[in-house]
Write a structure and sequence with these properties.
heterodimer, A: 434 residues, two-stranded antiparallel ribbon, 16 helices, 2 strands, globular, B: 201 residues, 21% helix
Chain lengths: 434, 201
């Protein structure tokens, strides 16, 4: 039997001689730094969630009806009448939220250890494009169940494009194919959600990994193992501080996968709506174009960016400034490799100013998130008394946090371009070498 | 033939000419796909005027009717609500609707009450910020979002506030007063939305 497999293997190799070297290049002979820590789980977990979204998504399309008259009912049908339909849908909805959890952590890891810096700018840019495609994918998926939050969420997000001066209203009608989100909108969002964007996402993931494997992985010490001493147990010419991705990191990632699936399964089985965070209660009501839900807020992963829209007031008769602020908050992340040009990568050896700034940035992000989720409307009266003017307090708090968010980038630019940063000496090799 | 000297200029010209013609072809081929996203003939046709009787709308009550799939608010404003309107002027972005909001109503509704008849407000209930439907909060009592509330509209999405004539307050995200659609009174108790009054009537 083994002989048969060997012969099939030989047959394939003779015809595609490039296949085995490619496998070795990306798996058994891809030498990753040996000092990866907990933060390095989230890339592989993002891949796992992507696979989950594709598989569960394919099965959801088998019973979903992408029409304004049938969409809401078909989702209820999946939840109630399709065998195990509830599980497949909850895996998809929980997967969507967990996708953003792991991607946010993955991005934070990149910022903290300077993984976006030279020579990995392209890896970062491709990663940011993945993030952008993922946001579009998530938004369109959110519209598909055609609940009342789907409808109004679609309306508000499409209206963002309506704030563009001059062409805004026409652009808005072009996106929706109607004067309101309607059948045409739902149909095209379905097409984009299940075909166009997944193809783009998969392509970008391949490019992200290809770009990474050209330059090699960064690590918590932010030192380049390729510049360190050569020669490890497997290859005399490869970095001494590198270990083969397979089997060492594949096995490590399996541990992460186990933990992750445990958490995911708990959510799917015991708290699939996650208290209205992953699935909003108002979305169990069918879309109604005459009644706005009492509170319109996006799903939690958009709230931080979305709060910025609210915090920037209109000026000169247009509301475009808030929208520019929101897109700007993401555009600045794209530009990070050219904003933060400090030579030291890892937070371990960076100046105190950087550590303080990053902490404030994270706090600002969480506060904007809370604001976008309307948590402040609930907690401010409890903290400051019931008689306060919530709009005023929201605005003051939110504008401070918006300034802090953008201030991070301004500070980093000044801090690194003007040479204010006092760094610690960076070791020659990763600190855990033997 | 094989030893002929390569004419690089000619080769460059042919390459760019091919690229340009191909590019024009791709752009032209993209037009039908882009145009296919515009509202279809069916979507455009669904925009007929709407007629509504006002007999059963009590003083202070709001009725919402659909016109071109948009929610249109019809409010029978109370004398108190009407009396409060001029007092709001200092707090509003464009109290006379002649600045940034000059296009937000037909000429016959460009007045203090933004209506044909003072008590009847007929307005497209779409927030000028990002298109939500603001809530009607008609009672004049202190609200969490405004201790001096004099009745009006409160948008649940981004907390924009409007007075009882759909005029936007200062310091909120919405830039303009809400839109007044073309409408006219067919008789004393019937309004038609989508068609303005005849000239001179």
């Amino acid at each position: 039997m083994a002989n048969v497999f060997a012969r099939i293997g030989d047959w394939v190799n003779e015809r595609t001689p490039g296949l085995a070297p490619m496998y070795r290049k990306h798996m058994t002979e891809y030498y990753a730094p040996k000092n990866f820590n907990l933060w390095y789980y989230f890339g592989s977990l993002a891949m796992l969630v992507l696979v989950n979204q594709i598989v569960t998504g394919i099965f959801l399309t088998m019973n979903y009806d992408p029409s304004a008259s049938g969409a809401f009912d078909s989702v209820q049908y999946i939840m109630r009448d399709v065998e195990w339909g509830w599980l497949i849908r909850y895996m998809h909805t929980t997967g969507a939220s967990l996708f953003f959890v792991v991607v946010f952590l993955h991005m934070f890891r990149g910022i903290m250890y300077g993984s976006f810096k030279k020579p990995r700018e392209l890896v970062w840019l491709l990663g940011m494009l993945i993030f952008l495609a993922l946001m579009a994918e998530a938004f369109m998926g959110y519209v598909l169940p055609w609940g009342n939050m789907s409808f109004w969420g679609a309306k508000v997000i499409v209206s963002l494009f309506g704030t563009v001066p001059k062409i805004g209203p026409a652009l808005q009608e072009w996106i929706m194919g109607d004067f309101l989100p309607a059948d045409a909108t739902l149909n095209r969002f379905f097409a984009l959600h299940v075909i166009a964007l997944p193809i783009v996402l998969l392509l970008l993931v391949v490019l992200h990994l290809a770009a990474l494997h050209e330059v090699g992985s960064n690590n918590p010490d932010g030192v380049e193992i390729k510049k360190g001493p050569k020669g490890n147990r497997w290859d005399a010419l490869k970095p001494a501080d590198g270990i083969p991705f397979h089997p060492y990191y594949t096995v490590k990632d399996l541990v992460g996968v186990g933990f992750f699936l445990l958490i995911a399964a708990f959510i799917i089985f015991f708290a699939p709506t996650f208290g209205g965070w992953f699935l909003e209660h108002d979305n169990s009501i069918a879309a109604n174009n005459l009644v706005t839900p009492a509170q319109i807020k996006p799903v939690w992963y958009f709230t931080a960016f979305y709060a910025i829209v609210r915090m920037v007031p209109s000026a000169f008769g247009t509301a475009v400034w808030g929208v520019l602020g929101m897109f700007g908050s993401i555009a600045l992340l794209f530009a990070l490799p050219w904003i933060d040009v400090g030579p030291v990568k890892s937070i371990r050896y960076r100046g105190t100013g950087y550590k303080v700034a990053l902490t404030i940035f994270v706090i600002a992000f969480f506060c904007l998130m809370a604001l976008g989720m309307d948590l402040t409307d609930e907690y401010f009266p409890r903290i400051f008394g019931a008689g306060i003017d919530i709009t005023l307090w929201d605005n003051v708090f939110g504008r401070i946090m918006t300034v802090a968010y953008f201030g991070f980038f301004v500070f980093l630019w000044l801090y690194t371009h003007l040479g204010w940063e006092k760094t610690k000496p960076v070791p020659d090799r990763v600190t855990t070498h033997d | 033939m094989a030893n002929e000297v390569v004419d690089h200029g000619r080769r460059r010209f042919l390459t760019s000419a091919t690229a340009v013609v191909g590019g024009v072809g791709i752009v032209s081929a993209a037009v039908p796909f882009i145009k296919s996203w515009e509202p279809s003939a069916r979507a455009k046709a669904a925009g007929a005027p709407v007629t509504q009787s006002l007999k059963k709308i009590e003083s202070g009550q709001q009725l919402i009717v659909a016109w071109r799939s948009l929610p249109v608010f019809i409010v029978n404003r109370t004398p108190e609500q009407l009396a409060a309107l001029p007092k709001q002027d200092p707090r509003l972005v464009d109290p006379k609707s002649d600045g940034s909001s000059s296009e937000q109503q037909p000429k016959y509704a460009q007045n203090e009450t933004r209506s044909i008849k003072p008590e009847w407000l007929v307005m497209v209930g779409i927030c000028t910020h990002l298109g939500c439907v603001p809530n009607y909060v008609g009672e004049m009592k202190p609200e969490p979002f405004d201790p001096n509330w004099q009745g009006g509209y409160y948008c649940p999405c981004h907390h924009s506030r409007y007075d009882m004539a759909g005029r936007v307050y200062r310091g909120v995200p919405a830039p303009k007063n809400m839109q007044i659609p073309p409408y006219h009174f067919v008789d004393d108790t019937t309004v038609q939305i989508g068609v303005g009054p005849k000239e001179g009537a």
